[in-house]
Amino acid sequence: MTNPPSQNRPAIHSVDEFVFSVPDLAVARHFYTSFGLDVRDEGGALALHTHGHPHRWARVLQGDGGPKRLEWLSLGIHAADLPRFDDLLHARGIARLAPPQGADPSGLWLQGPDALPIQLRVAPKVSPDAPGPRDAPPAPANVGRAPSRSTAQATRPLYLSHILLFTADVARALDFYTGVLGLQVSDQSAGIIAFLHTPHGSDHHLIAFAKSNAGGLHHSSWCVPSLDAVGMGAQQMAAAGYPDGWGLGRHVLGSNYFRYVRDPWGSFAEYSFDIDYVAPHAQWPAADHPPEDSLYVWGPHVPEDFIVNHELARG
């Protein structure tokens, strides 16, 4: 059971950064550069930016040779909420956590569901403050309107829309992310998948959860400005050697058009266009939807291993 929304409780406003490790940084560099991100070297890791945007959305660390692993989440909060979160953690009896090696020690560190280290840090809001751009083809005007294949620009995502995490217990994850972190449920389905937004305003989901045997990162989702950008992104990734994934299609929950590209570690990066937006403090009509509505309205059949978690459970 989740806690009812309240404007009197502190809430995170953004996924400030997600950090994960992979066996080979060179492979990660090729994948995310091909995807259209601005990939930078930073202290022996890779920093994932979007072109023209100052924010660092993610870091990719060199792992120990094992599977990809989500290492920690840094979640953005407003400065006025830092002491309120401090009080809330104390009242809930939630112990502080030592920061992982190499992590920023500022703010509040705690252990989330599935033993995931979580940082609450004061940071500018980078979740969107308005619906994403919706570029459409011009109206017919006695001239061809499609972009030229010979001059078409590469797809470059604009910003991080959301992340979807695996969890061993969706209900427990919802209780923590709503009751402690202040998020609000947008929609869910049959205890197997759930979507949450921030009351400070965000896309339909800032963080989502899918039922699995353990925690992990299923996908990161990146906003693009048109359906053409989704399709052209799929094409550019196939040309770069990443033809596998799911889509094009359209989701029911969130409404966005999508193409998921399978990464070298069995998880996904998503091109997303036209996702629903929840304005600050708006009351979204949340519901528990039937399983057939949990994934898509139209599109190809879901790959059999789409919800397979390739990460190892944390100790």
Provide structural commentary.
The protein has 315 residues and is of the alpha+beta class. It has one domain (14-126, 157-293): 2,3-Dihydroxybiphenyl 1,2-Dioxygenase, domain 1 (Roll). The protein has 4 helices and 17 strands. It has helices at residues 25-35, 82-92, 170-179, 227-239, and strands at residues 14-22, 38-42, 45-49, 56-62, 69-77, 108-111, 117-122, 159-167, 184-189, 193-197, 202-203, 207-211, 216-223, 245-250, 257-262, 268-273, 277-278. Mean pLDDT is 94; it is low at 1-6. Residues 124-150 are annotated as: Disordered. Keywords: Dioxygenase, Lyase, Oxidoreductase.
Which sheet architecture does the biggest sheet show?
Answer: 8 strands, mixed
Give a count of the beta strands, DSSP E runs of length 2 or more. 17
CATH-derived architecture: Roll
Strand order of the largest sheet: 9-10-12-8-13-16-15-14
Number of domain modules = 1
Query: What are the low-pLDDT stretches, counting only 5+ consecutive residues below 50?
Result: 1-6
Write the topology of this structure.
Layout: E1 14-22, H1 25-35, E2 38-42, E3 45-49, E4 56-62, E5 69-77, H2 82-92, E6 108-111, E7 117-122, E8 159-167, H3 170-179, E9 184-189, E10 193-197, E11 202-203, E12 207-211, E13 216-223, H4 227-239, E14 245-250, E15 257-262, E16 268-273, E17 277-278
What does this entry show, briefly?
By secondary structure, the chain is an alpha+beta fold.
Write out key terms for the chains shown:
single chain; 315 residues; alpha+beta; 2,3-Dihydroxybiphenyl 1,2-Dioxygenase, domain 1; 8-stranded mixed β-sheet; 7-stranded mixed β-sheet; 17 strands; 14% helix; 32% strand; globular; disordered N terminus
